[in-house]
Write a structure and sequence with these properties.
The structure holds 2 protein chains of 2 kinds.
Chain A: H1 2-33, H2 40-58, H3 66-85, H4 92-115, E1 130-133, E2 136-139, H5 140-162, H6 164-174, H7 176-181, H8 186-211, H9 219-233, H10 238-258, H11 264-278
Antiparallel strand pairs in A: 1-2
Helix pairs in contact in A: 1-5, 1-6, 1-8, 1-9, 1-10, 2-4, 2-8, 2-9, 3-8, 5-6, 5-8, 9-10, 10-11
Chain B: H1 2-17, E1 34-40, H2 47-66, E2 75-81, H3 86-98, E3 104-105, H4 111-123, E4 128-130, H5 136-139, E5 146-148, H6 159-167, E6 176-182, H7 187-200, E7 204-211, H8 219-228, E8 232-236, H9 239-251, E9 258-261, H10 269-275, H11 277-280, E10 284-287, H12 298-309, H13 318-337, H14 342-350, E11 353-356, E12 359-362, E13 374-379, E14 382-387
Parallel strand pairs in B: 1-2, 1-3, 4-5, 6-7, 6-8, 8-9
Antiparallel strand pairs in B: 10-13, 11-12, 13-14
Helix pairs in contact in B: 2-13, 3-4, 6-7, 8-9, 13-14
Classes of the chains: A mainly alpha, B alpha/beta.
């Protein structure tokens, strides 16, 4: 049993990394734009379908295909931000839930039209391959997904904390109005942030599509998990999203093997509620002063 | 501001967790055609099955209309989408009956959705023949309008599997078994019954877990099964978890001597394309229908299905055959009653046998069929019945070959 717990914990860390990547886009979009993108799960599924098309039609490996799908998703994100999000001027955070939910339904409908409701999966050769570590086997796809996530999250961190452009993003996250006053084009930053969020969704979609059978409706379960991750981590915090995602998956996986899968989600929510009682802003969220 | 935003985030999460639903489908006018209302899961967990049911229903409508219709009236379906939601399916059937005033109602996919929707149909005295709600809870509520159009009660689906294992020579009989099932009224009773039969026969249970239907990450469960090193594995699955378990077993280099899943391997190419034809070899599933069955109109069904929807015989989902059978049963009952009045149909459905592409079916007072299901196995790229011997067209492959 102890071996199984160790294996579950390792699996939790590896899959947690992928969830961190998916959640990073969501928390970045929230941080910069102050919108709750409930369509983010649908964007991950869209990313999985784009990889699926490249893989099915032209036999492009899904990980290599990111060279194509990430820029495409980035561009699409910029367009979607300009068309759907930018026009929201008042009551932005509440309206954004409705608009991005409509976006999710639209994406689901379009995917359903082209691909039907049948389940698909990215059946790459390494999907079932694994290597031995002691008594158990680690699947290559989880390791690849984890490494990909670490690479992208590191790149995102570098952009945010080591570049002038990143400083502009962080300034917008801290105070949109003040950033505007010092000459930052916050609308441009917002469009780019939405694009980056979609590009990370595309990357997450690859691993999701290899490890899960998916169909256009697969985003509902996904977005509920991603939202819990960013709420626990602290809205707008990249570090928080990473820690919370890994924490969530490790707790769930260990509870699942030690106690029962029925208690897996519950155990995470207990920790979520306790954390929010002690720190309403989440693990790494910034507590705002009254009136801000 | 932050608190408001946090509140909005939590609200958004709440909205999503509470479930989502969509609507849609073809509309129809009233008047001459017999309007049949069906709620289908075109999104969500059961969307693959929902689509297959729609194909089966549509094909039956084409056939019956080509013969002049149901008692001389054309059949027209009104399909609405329940997105696999137990709330939406209730709304859908209420609307179909009270607003759209459909003449007949046919059932949705799964026991989970049949349980609440059959209650609505009963409230308005509609017959509720249904293709896919066979869990015990469908029949223990005293309803007289439900008719499960499959050969056997679902709870007994894996009994054939347990009996087959017991029939193996003593030196080949499994000593240990692992079980995992969704907490679904369709899957769990099957696995529970198989476990009790096998435990009674001395097969030791080395792993047994029930998981919520909402589970998306099946890997820890599959790891547990793999680590148990059980000789045989029985899983209460739908298609996504059926695939996920197999994927993890392969990653863990764990190939049980026998693997049976309640749903998934019966989904034709949807299953074998993802698992790979070589890896599907030897996997079993309980079934009431298979493509080459010599039953009433089955040859015609298979040909018509391929002509309309493409693919080949192996790609046809059993769901489509079950939906088609619902139409066949209603067609015969309407003929015997000389009416599509629901009270008369209910009476006719409770009496006599009906010929379907799944074989002859008769219902007891609760609407359960009184036949037995059988065991099919993937062999050389297609599913073939292997047990009991009376219906078998091939010998069961045992042990299952190792993963490729």
């Amino acid at each position: 049993m102890s071996g199984l717990v160790v294996e579950a914990a390792m699996l939790g860390v590896l899959t947690g990394g992928v969830y961190a990547l998916m959640a990073s886009g969501l928390t970045l979009i929230f941080g910069v734009m102050r919108i709750i993108n409930v369509g983010h799960g649908a964007l991950v599924v869209l990313g999985a379908y784009l990889s699926f098309v490249l893989f099915q039609r032209w036999h492009v490996d899904p990980f290599l295909g990111l060279v194509v799908t990430m820029p495409v998703m980035f561009g699409l994100g910029v367009v979607l931000e300009i068309v759907f999000i930018r026009p929201l001027r008042t009551d932005r955070e509440a309206l954004s839930v409705l608009v991005t939910y409509a976006l999710a339904l639209g994406i689901e409908g379009i995917l359903g039209y082209f691909f039907s409701a049948n389940y698909q999966q990215l059946s790459v050769w390494y999907q079932r391959a694994s290597f031995a570590v002691g008594d158990f086997h680690i699947a290559y796809v989880y390791v690849l997904g984890f490494l990909l996530s670490v690479a992208f999250l590191a790149a995102l961190g570098l952009v945010l904390y080591r570049t002038t452009f990143g400083a502009a993003i962080r300034a917008t996250m801290l105070n949109r109005s003040a950033a505007q006053l010092v000459g930052i084009d916050v609308e441009r930053i917002s469009a780019i942030a939405f694009g980056i969020g979609m590009a990370t969704a595309a990357a997450g979609g690859v691993v999701f599509g290899i490890t899960n059978a998916f169909n256009p409706g697969s985003h509902y379960d996904l977005i509920s998990r991603l939202l819990t991750v960013i709420v626990l981590g602290g809205l707008g915090s990249l570090k928080g999203a990473i820690v919370a995602a890994v924490l969530m998956l490790v707790i769930e996986d260990i509870t699942s093997v030690l106690v029962s899968p029925t208690w897996a989600d519950f155990s995470f929510f207990v920790i979520l509620v306790l954390t929010l009682l002690a720190r309403p802003q989440g693990l790494y969220g910034v507590r705002a002063r009254a009136g801000t | 501001m932050r608190k408001t935003l946090l509140g909005t985030a939590v609200l958004a999460l709440g909205v999503l967790l509470s479930g989502c639903a969509g609507g849609g489908g073809a509309s129809s006018g009233s008047g001459k055609p017999v309007l049949v209302g069906v709620s289908l899961s075109l999104d969500g967990d059961f969307s693959g099955d929902g689509k297959a049911l729609q194909q089966g229903y549509q094909l039956w409508a084409d056939d019956v209309n080509a013969k002049g219709g149901l008692l001389g009236r054309k059949v027209q379906f009104k399909f609405v989408n329940d997105a696999s939601s137990t709330q939406q399916v209730v709304t859908n059937y209420t609307n179909l009956i009270t607003r759209d005033k459909v003449d007949l109602t046919f059932g949705p996919f799964s026991s989970l959705l049949t349980i609440p929707s059959s209650q609505i149909a009963a409230r308005y005295s509609y017959a509720f023949p249904e293709p896919a709600g066979g869990g015990p809870d469908v029949f223990n509520r005293g309803l007289k309008n439900v008719f499960f159009v499959q050969p056997a009660p679902v709870v007994d689906n894996l009994v054939s599997y347990a009996q087959w294992l017991q029939s193996l020579p003593a030196d080949q009989r499994p000593k240990t078994a692992a079980y995992a099932t969704e907490d679904d009224p369709f899957t769990q009773p099957q696995v529970d019954k198989a476990r009790s039969v096998l435990e009674g026969a001395g097969v030791q249970t080395v792993y047994n877990k029930v998981y919520p239907a909402e589970t998306t990450d099946f890997t820890p469960l599959a790891l547990g099964v793999a680590q148990s090193h059980a000789d045989v594995v029985a899983l209460g699955t739908q298609l996504p978890d059926a695939l996920a378990f197999i994927q993890t077993f392969q990653q863990q280099k764990y190939s049980p001597k026998s693997l049976v899943e309640t749903t998934g391997p019966d989904q034709g190419a949807q299953f074998s394309d993802k698992v790979g034809a070589a890896n599907a070899e030897g996997i079993m599933v309980p079934a009431g229908w298979w493509p080459s069955a010599k039953t009433s109109l089955n040859d015609h069904f298979v040909k018509a299905f391929i002509a309309k929807f493409g693919g080949d015989a192996a790609s046809i989902s059993a769901d489509a055959a079950e939906a088609y059978s619902v139409g066949q049963v209603v067609e015969q009952a309407a003929g015997r009653a000389s009416s599509i009045d629901n009270a008369k149909l209910i009476q006719a459905l409770h009496a006599g046998r009906f010929q379907t592409i799944q074989g002859p079916i008769a219902f007891d007072a609760t609407g359960q069929p009184n036949g037995a299901s059988f065991l099919v196995q993937w062999q050389h790229g297609q599913t073939v019945p292997v047990y009991p011997p009376s219906v078998a067209v091939a010998k069961p492959e045992f042990p299952k070959p190792n993963w490729q």
